[in-house]
Structure formats: structure tokens, C-alpha cells
Design a protein that fits this description.
The chain has 284 residues and is mainly α. It is built from twelve helices and two strands. Strand 1 and strand 2 form a beta hairpin. The two termini are 23 Å apart.
């Protein structure tokens, strides 16, 4: 597996954030579009498997294939740049500032949304034979998901909004663990294993992922889901995206950065003459 300790790959996280800031507009949009499209296909795949097998855990076990594909191709999700790009600012990399950060986030958001919407239209078209039939069980299932996770949250008012916000935090805690976890290995199999576990967890637990939702909710509306665009934005996408931002940054980026990149010197024990110090590393 060629394991790398966090102290070895933590700086790579900062490097990755800096690289994304300086990436061209064309490359950023293309990579974001492909990431949104592939993740949307993975969501369709996982929901279909869960429905046909009657086993939600099986769908969750297979969903990570989409995340793995897009990561290995170096495509970008908004959830990933939420975690990595701010580190370039915190580390004071030259040319990295808030304007450039917001530019990157905006481009990735637009690319992810375009990719997810493209797949939503394509899948809705093939399920309905060009919108001539009702779409079947899959369309009905996704419509129910869309309604329950918009107007269903709205029914609980501010508590519903906070619920989805926290679900978004928990989601990107796990997704970002997959992003940085892939850095612990230099082999493809090692990267896949490290990504698989946290992605499977977030999907099975029903946490909220802003890019997955960019597919699910437009698809649900096309298939007849009884909610509006504003319902989707206010009661799902907005709190989910904010939760994704806070979760990835607060629970993954900052802890790894401040304990592995900005690690403090080892403490000393006692004081004065003969005081004890942390033992030196043994000679190799």
C-alpha cells in the first residue's frame, strides 16, 4: 500500500489547494463538470442497486466507485475544494487570497451543477422514453426523496434547516476524509481502499452532499416531485453547501494542518538543572 504518515502528506494538502487556485478557468470548469456528472451517475447506480436488491447497505457499498473514478482522474468536487483551497490562504502561499479562493469555488460550483444537471436530463429522458412514460419505480423513489428532503425539512422550521446543515457538516467530514485519505498511499489500490470507507459511511447514513443533491433534486422535479426551485435552494442546497463547507474545513483541514504542518515543538518535562526532555529519536 506504500503508506505515508499524515506528517508526510499534510503539506501535499496545502500544495493541492494552491494548485487549484492557479488552475486555468477552462481546466477548472471541465474537471468540475466531469466530477458532477460522474457523481450523479454513481448516485443513480447506488439508488438502483438498493431498490432492486432491497439492500440499502449494498447500494452504499457500491456508491464510492463514482467518487473513486473522479478522484483518480483528478476531477474536482466543491466539497473537496472547500477543504483544500483555504489551506493555501492559511499557509500564506504567494498569490493565494480570498478573491482567488472565491473564484475557484464559484467555477467549481458552476461546473459541478452543469454536470449534475446534464445527467439529470439524460437519465430522466431514458427512463421516460423521451418523457412519454411515467419513469417507473426509480423516478417515483427519487421524487419521494426530493419531497421529504425539502418540504419535509421545511415543516420543522429552523430546526429542520439546522438539521440539514449538520447533516451537511457530517457529510463533508467523511467525504474530505476520503479526499485526504487517498494521499496516504502512492498506489491506486491503497488510494481506493482509503476513499471507500468514509464515502460508504456518508451515503448509508443519509448525510447531505451538495453535489449529489444537484442531481437528485432537479431530477426529482423533472419526475414530478411536489416542491419548488426555491424549496430546493432554501431547504436543501443552501444549508447543505454551508454545512459541507464548515464540516470539511473545521473537522478535516484545520486539525490536519495545525497538528501536522504547524506541529509544535516537543515539550520538556520539569525545569532547572537535570530537567527531563522528550527522548530523542533513536538512530536508524
Amino acid at each position: 500500500m506504500s503508506y505515508l504518515a499524515p506528517s508526510e502528506f499534510a503539506t501535499k494538502m496545502v500544495d493541492a489547494g494552491e494548485e487549484k487556485i492557479f488552475m486555468s478557468t477552462k481546466d477548472t470548469l471541465i474537471r468540475a463538470f466531469m466530477a458532477g456528472a460522474i457523481l450523479a451517475l454513481a448516485a443513480v447506480f447506488a439508488i438502483t442497486v438498493a431498490m432492486k436488491s432491497g439492500s440499502p447497505i449494498l447500494g452504499a457499498c457500491l456508491f464510492p466507485v463514482g467518487f473513486i473514478m473522479l478522484y483518480l482522474m483528478k476531477f474536482d468536487l466543491l466539497t473537496g475544494v472547500f477543504t483544500l483551497v483555504p489551506l493555501a490562504l492559511i499557509d500564506k502561499r504567494p498569490g493565494c487570497n480570498m478573491q482567488q479562493l472565491l473564484r475557484n469555488w464559484g467555477l467549481v460550483f458552476c461546473g459541478n451543477l452543469a454536470g449534475a444537471l446534464t445527467v439529470a436530463v439524460m437519465i430522466s429522458f431514458i427512463l421516460t422514453y423521451g418523457y412519454n412514460t411515467d419513469g417507473g419505480a426509480l423516478a417515483a423513489k427519487v421524487s419521494t426523496i426530493g419531497e421529504s428532503r425539502t418540504v419535509g425539512y421545511a415543516a420543522h422550521g429552523i430546526d429542520g434547516w439546522l438539521t440539514i446543515f449538520i447533516r451537511g457538516m457530517l457529510c463533508n467530514w467523511m467525504v474530505s476524509m476520503g479526499v485526504v485519505g487517498a494521499m496516504i498511499s502512492t498506489s491506486a489500490t491503497g488510494k481506493m481502499a482509503a476513499m471507500w470507507m468514509p464515502i460508504m459511511l456518508f451515503f448509508f447514513m443519509g448525510f447531505e452532499h451538495s453535489i449529489v443533491n444537484m442531481f437528485l433534486f432537479p431530477f426529482s422535479m423533472i419526475m414530478g416531485g411536489d416542491f419548488t426551485v426555491m424549496d430546493y435552494i432554501i431547504w436543501n442546497e443552501l444549508p447543505t453547501a454551508l454545512g459541507n463547507l464548515v464540516g470539511g474545513f473545521l473537522f478535516v483541514a484545520l486539525p490536519l494542518y495545525y497538528t501536522h504542518v504547524r506541529q509544535d515543538a516537543k515539550r520538556t518535562l520539569g525545569g532547572g538543572a537535570g530537567s527531563m526532555t522528550a527522548p530523542a529519536d533513536k538512530a536508524k
